[in-house]
From TrEMBL:
InterPro entries in the record: dTDP_dehydrorham_reduct, NAD(P)-bd_dom_sf, RmlD-like-bd
Superkingdom of the source species: Bacteria
Pathway where it operates: Carbohydrate biosynthesis; dTDP-L-rhamnose biosynthesis
Function recorded in the entry: Catalyzes the reduction of dTDP-6-deoxy-L-lyxo-4-hexulose to yield dTDP-L-rhamnose.
GO molecular function term, any single one: dTDP-4-dehydrorhamnose reductase activity
Keyword set, alphabetical order: NADP, Oxidoreductase
Source species: Clostridium coskatii
Span of domain RmlD-like substrate binding: 4-286
Protein known as: dTDP-4-dehydrorhamnose reductase
Family: Belongs to the dTDP-4-dehydrorhamnose reductase family.
Signal sequence range: none
Enzyme Commission (EC) number: 1.1.1.133
Length: 302
């Protein structure tokens, strides 16, 4: 029997890749929602409007709901706490209420920002202690899911990158700036686990195939600082790495604190799924293939 999967936020960067991954599996009927970026094949859904959520759930009647939607701009969340809470906590609570009513399995995309970044990389059992408001709202949403839903998967990830002209992910910003000969200040004291978006989507789809439950870290296989990641990206993408300027996080004048010594361990993921997530070299080489293809198409006006 086919399972109906509803991807909330399927028009976003990660949502689009998840939609593709589930569409390829004939075991699922896959549906997506949009909020701002209208897409004809997706349902309109506002997490803040119960009627909107009800309409979508009544139409799709999902077995699995994957929640990718959230306010992810860390600086914006810090400066606009009411709005961040409304979207990242109340919005999730609204969705979860209907998931409970329809007895859905819930897959929630969370973050390494639930940790303070003092003793990384972290495993799934480490104590959470977010140091910025974005991290606090994501942890609050995790707690709602744990308390309300029996069948859930919380996938913690970080620094999601990949090829998408409509995305402002770190690698697309890097390609944009370096291609225009613009320098970039990159923190060399923020350590994390860069995650290739397509790989993340595939792993989440496999986790649903195997009915994996609980909390699991789904990140790339390398733990590395942002500057070294950027340098490696510039090397693989054949861009000018001398335009990358290493700086300390404190010098950037950001209002939200960042976990510095973070990153996530993937031992549990490897043990449960027998899959080793891609490291930065493999992920970035895939980005390069898409970047090269785009340059050819652009040159020939395709």
């Amino acid at each position: 029997m086919l399972k109906r999967v509803l991807i909330v936020g399927a028009s976003g960067f990660l949502g689009k890749e998840l939609y593709k991954a589930f569409k390829l599996n004939t075991y699922y009927e896959t549906y997506g929602t949009y909020f701002k970026n209208e897409m004809n094949s997706f349902e309109y859904l506002s997490m803040m409007q119960l009627d909107s959520i009800k309409s979508t759930f009544d139409k799709v009647r999902p077995n699995i709901v994957i929640i990718t939607s959230s306010l992810t701009n860390v600086e914006y969340c810090e400066a606009n706490k009411d709005e961040a809470y409304e979207i990242n906590v109340i919005g999730i609570k609204n969705i979860v209420g209907f998931c409970k009513k329809y007895n859905c399995r819930v897959v929630y995309i969370s973050t390494e920002y639930v940790f303070d970044g003092k003793n990384g990389p972290y495993d799934e059992e480490d104590a959470e202690f977010p140091i910025n408001y974005y991290g606090k709202t994501k942890l609050e949403a995790e707690k709602i899911i744990k308390s309300e839903i029996k069948d859930y998967l919380i996938a913690r990830t970080t620094v999601i990158y990949g090829w998408d002209l409509n995305s402002k992910n770190f690698i697309m910003q890097l390609i944009n700036n370096l291609s225009k000969n613009k320098s970039m200040k990159i923190p060399n004291d923020q350590i994390s686990s860069p995650t290739y978006c397509n790989d993340l989507s595939m792993i989440i789809e496999k986790s649903c195939d195997k009915d994996i439950k609980g909390v699991i870290n789904v990140v790339g296989n390398d733990v590395i600082d942002r500057y070294r990641f950027a340098v490696r990206a510039a090397e693989i993408l054949e861009l000018n790495k001398s335009l990358l300027i290493p700086v300390k996080t404190i010098s950037l004048g950001q209002i939200a604190s960042r976990p510095l010594n973070a990153g996530l361990k993937v031992d549990k993921l490897i043990s449960l799924l027998k899959i080793k997530p891609l490291g930065i070299d493999e992920g970035l080489k895939n980005v390069k293939l898409n970047h090269d293809k785009y340059k050819v198409e652009e040159a020939y006006g395709e």
